[in-house]
Sequence to fold (110 residues):
Amino acid sequence: MGAAQFSVFRPATTPLNAADPWSQADALFQRAVDDARHEEGHGGYTGTIAEKDSFVQAGVATSRVEAGGMMDGLWDNEAYTDTWGPAGALAILAKDDHPGGYLFFGYASE
Fold:
């Protein structure tokens, strides 16, 4: 059994702002986990976010492109490489007509 990298974006339900960028993170993380469990099953070892039960805040970005670059720089960080530990999360602030959202990422057992 090994580990797989995953990344999941979930758009915010209302625009995220710099004053409170983490306001929707818990609910959207749980939705991402629930969706993955529905798609992959509840048996474990899916290599997806379904294996995670929490996340840690990894930073705030102003665009999905910036968040992707930040995530790329964090793949080797011990905080996010533990297959049994929490996922990483990047908040992406609202911009123009996009409400922002969250990029959850990490390694999961498969």
